[in-house]
Design brief:
The complex is a heterodimer of chains A (118) and B (113).
Chain A lengths: L2 E3 L4 E5 L4 E3 L2 E3 L6 E7 L6 E7 L6 E3 L2 E6 L4 E6 L8 E8 L10 E3 L3 E6 L1
Chain B lengths: L3 E4 L2 E4 L5 E7 L5 E8 L3 E10 L2 E4 L6 E3 L9 E3 L8 E8 L8 E2 L3 E5 L1
Parallel strand pairs in B: 2-11
Antiparallel strand pairs in B: 1-3, 3-8, 4-5, 4-9, 5-6, 7-8, 9-10, 9-11
Classes of the chains: A mainly beta (118), B mainly beta (113).
């Protein structure tokens, strides 16, 4: 069965610190997709990034970066020079490739609540 | 463009009552989903629909039903609410397939007493 583990339930740092959110996944599939979503205090989930299992290149988007390592089944998310607006719950998710035609099953981790203190 | 709307925003419901959570998307996405979010458990899939007229069960379907009469609407019904169904419910949609991201609505906070 597919599983996503975000071992860090809560993280609290001071503004401008770097912070890494861990994500470890389990799957027997060779083709799969990994996602990160952000849930700010307003409650709505916002898509951040997608990565397919054949692309291990790290991704950087401004202060955000993602490190995908198949060897350790990890897809970690780093925020550099954190800001108060980064405070949110962050979810890592894994997509099954053959759920059903035309739909997608996302398996979510438990989420990490990140608090950036001024 | 609104994306996905959900109604109501929040609701307090007596146990045993019937309740329908509404979800509408204007992106013409084929696939739609209902999740519940509970503390410490992340989001869990209740039901999904890969196209109008077709629905399927997710991870936690018991006590819930859905219908998909058209592309835009995907209501979730609790036939007889129980306290364990107290949760935040999110509707989502996507273009379909394993690759495409899902877009989420603002959520409905439901309390069953």
């Amino acid at each position: 069965a597919q599983k996503v583990t975000q071992a860090q339930t809560e993280i609290s740092v001071v503004e401008k610190e770097d912070v890494t959110l861990d994500c470890v996944y389990e799957t027997r599939d060779t083709t799969y997709y990994l996602f990160w979503y952000k849930q700010p205090p307003s409650g709505e989930l916002v898509f951040l990034i997608r990565r397919n299992s054949f692309d291990e290149q790290n991704e950087i988007s401004g202060r955000y970066s993602w490190n995908f390592q198949k060897s350790t089944s990890s897809f970690n998310f780093t925020i550099t020079a954190s800001q108060v607006v980064d405070s949110a719950v962050y979810f890592c998710a894994l997509s099954e490739p053959q759920f059903i035609q035309g739909a997608q099953k996302l398996v979510f981790g438990q989420g990490t609540r990140l608090t950036i203190n001024p | 463009i609104a994306g996905i709307t959900q109604a109501p925003t929040s609701q307090i419901l007596a146990a045993g009552r019937r309740m329908t959570l509404r979800c509408t998307q204007d992106m013409r996405h084929n696939a739609m989903y209902w999740y519940r979010q509970d503390l410490g458990l992340g989001l869990r899939l209740i039901h999904y629909s890969n196209t109008a007229g077709t629905t399927g069960k997710g991870e936690v379907p018991d006590g819930y039903s859905v219908s998909r009469a058209n592309t835009d609407d995907f209501p979730l019904t609790l036939a007889s609410a129980v306290p364990s169904q107290t949760s935040v419910y999110f509707c989502a949609s996507s273009l379909g397939g394993s690759y495409n991201e899902q877009f989420f609505g603002p959520g409905t906070r439901l309390t069953v007493l």
